[in-house]
Amino acid sequence: MNTNTGPARRRALRIAIFNHKGGVGKTTLIVNIAAALASLGKRILLVDSDPQCNLTAYLIEESVVDDLLDTSDSDVGRTLWSAVKPVAEALGDIRLVDPIERLPNVYVLPGDIRLSGFEQGLSPLWDECFQRKTKGFRGTTAVSRLVDYAALKYEVDFVFYDAGPNIGALNRVLLLDCDYFIVPAACDVFSIIALKTLGYTLVNWISDWKTIVQLAPTGTYLLPGLPKFLGYIPQRFRVYGGDVAASYAKYLPRIEKSVSSDLITVLRRIDHALAPRSGSESELGQVKDFASIAAASQAEGRPMKDVSAGTPAQRTDAEQAFLHIAKKIIMLTS
Amino acid sequence: MVDYPESLPPVGPLEAGRSDDDLKVLNEVLAAFGRLKPDRREKILSIVATYYGVKAPEAISVLAAPHHGDATRSEPSFSEDRSISPKQFMLEKQPKTDVERVACLAYYLTHYRGIQNFNALDVSKLNTEAAQVKFADASVALANATKLNYLAPAGKGAKQLSALGEQFVLALPDRDRARNIMASARPRRKRRKANEEQSGDETQ
Questions:
Q1: Are residues B134 and B34 located together in one domain of the fold?
Q2: CB contact under 8 A, B131 and A101
Q3: Are A326 and A37 in contact (CB under 8 A)?
Q4: Is B126 part of any domain?
Q5: Mean pLDDT, to the nearest integer, of A109-116?
Q6: CB-CB under 8 Å, A61 with B128
Q7: Which one-letter DSSP state was computed for residue A44?
Q8: Nearest 5 degrees, angle CA A111-CA A115-CA A117?
């Protein structure tokens, strides 16, 4: 087994917030969980691996994001694309790019629209891994190695990947780089449909990578390839009088059932350790629809607990919800 | 043992690790400096530092308020002094509101980066570099800072730090002093009530 167990990986746990259905609140969740973990004394690195750059735009002013994207193709670029560009263009290895500190103890590696181009190149690189070619391994591990560098330099405790809503080649290498993944699920029928395909997709990725690991030349840097299911977070439901509104409440048991049958059971078929907890034990917390403070959080680039909008009770409510999830993440990963 | 002048701190427990020779020299220097006026002390200290190639103490080089308008000074201007990062500068100044943050960033651009005229993008970029939370709308924040006299228009949509804004940032983190500076420059409000009464009389 050649899997990388270097100091960066030992230091920082990598977690992907992943659901290939869009609009489930991945980015909002990531920012608020990161802020909650930072308030508990942890140092966080957020990797915006979505070519839509939502996470970057969440935390950085639009004009600065435009400027970052304008310069990302140059030698002074600071986005994820700037780092992986030499690999994508077969001009050399990754360029070490430093993340940008955006909240206390929260760092961001900005995303880039050009990552979609990198993603296209990743598919043939994946195939080259089967052919034991160095170029293939260099490409598939490019982001992972950049994260190694940033995690060590900034003494990060947790790395969060904000994965785009798809099951493309980029998400494949990111998920295989993770120690854990969390599935946010909106209370609607489409989230349940998405959960049905998620398990099978992950199993295919993990199985393929196992084959690649067996073929890999000795000493090659490899992704761990065993992302464990950390839990799911039902989101975006309305609450009336302290209870989940009836139209949303009916989805909560359906999500749990789908997580059990379509994700946990499927993952356990290849390795029980990939999903050690049952469906009912896997809920990390619930995040209701915070409406105005969620929108303010995105506009002001700060966690919901710190926004200028909403009532103090709403902000405290949000703070408690994300602190609960953050504490659970620490507990389950330590 | 010499009598220390009041303006200098007494030799404290830090001297425990020093040799007797160091202490003797220190006492002699302190005694000699005690006889000088404060402005001469700084001058002599500077000459001695230059002579022995010793760097100036950090306490008087990094965070000291700059002496603006002194055309004769020979030390590097603040635009050349990059010894303090924007993040450190903002931590030092502790602005509380968006307009105060804009004023502090404008000060940094002016004196540490040599950018006299700037726009919203310059301020936003520095804000990002300083690890500050993003502005909901940087253009609005700049417009508000201009309205409140922290900034002044510099033509073609650019802004510059106003004299008042400069004094305000220099006064920070002392909020009372900074508030007084802004309050002293606030334009007097028109006595609306008196005017209304007068116009009321005329209509009758």
A1: no
A2: yes
A3: yes
A4: yes
A5: 94
A6: yes
A7: E
A8: 165
Cβ pair A101:B138 closer than 8 A: no
Contact indicator for B110, B162 with CB cutoff of 8 Å: no
- Please give the angle made by the CA atoms of B182, B91 and A106, to the nearest 5 degrees: 130
pLDDT at A169: 94
- Could you tell me how far CA A101 lies from the centroid of its own chain? 18
Residue A260 in tokens:
């059990």
Burial class (CB in 10 A: 0-12, 13-18, 19+), B47: exposed
What's the whole-number average pLDDT of chain A? 92
Are A63 and B121 in contact (CB < 8 Å)? Answer: yes
Cβ A5 vs Cβ A144: under 8 Å: no
Q: Is residue B127 part of a domain?
A: yes
Position B64 scores a pLDDT of 39
Query: Whole-angstrom Cα distance, residue A252 to residue A288?
Result: 12
Count how many domains chain B has: 2
Nearest alpha carbon to residue A224 among A1, A9, A3: A3
Residue whose entry in the numeric block shows the structure tokens 């195939």: A127
Question: Does one domain contain both B133 and B167?
Answer: yes
> Buried (b) or exposed (e) across B86-125, using 16+ Cβ within 10 A?
beebbeebebeebbbbbbbbbbbbbbbeebebbbbebbbb
Going by C-alpha positions, the residue among A46, A61, A55 that lies closest to residue A106 is: A46
With left for phi above 0 and alpha for psi between -120 and 50, is residue A242 left, alpha or beta? left
DSSP A123-154: HHHHHHHHTT-HHHHHHHTHHHHHHHHHHHHT
Q: Is residue B2 in a domain?
A: no
Do B160 and B118 share a domain, yes or no?
yes
Work out the widest C-alpha separation in chain B, in whole angstroms: 92
Q: Determine the 3-state secondary structure of B57 from DSSP.
A: coil
Hey, which bits of chain B come out as E strands? Answer: 151-153, 159-161
Assigned domain for B6 exists: no
Q: Which of A63, A102, A306 is facing B124, going by the closest CB pair? A: A63
Compare A45 and B64 and report the one with higher pLDDT: A45
Threshold 0.90, pTM exceeds: no
Q: Does B132 share its domain with B180? A: yes
Dihedral sign for Cα atoms in the order A29, A186, A297, A77? positive
Contacts of B121 in chain A (CB under 8 A): 63-64, 67
Q: Please write the tens of the pLDDT for every residue from A259-308.
A: 999 999 999 999 999 999 998 899 999 999 888 999 999 999 999 999 99
Residue of A64, A76, A305 best to disrupt the B interface, most CBs of B under 10 A: A64
pLDDT bin (cut points 50, 70, 90) of residue B89 is very high
Domain that holds residue B159: 76-185
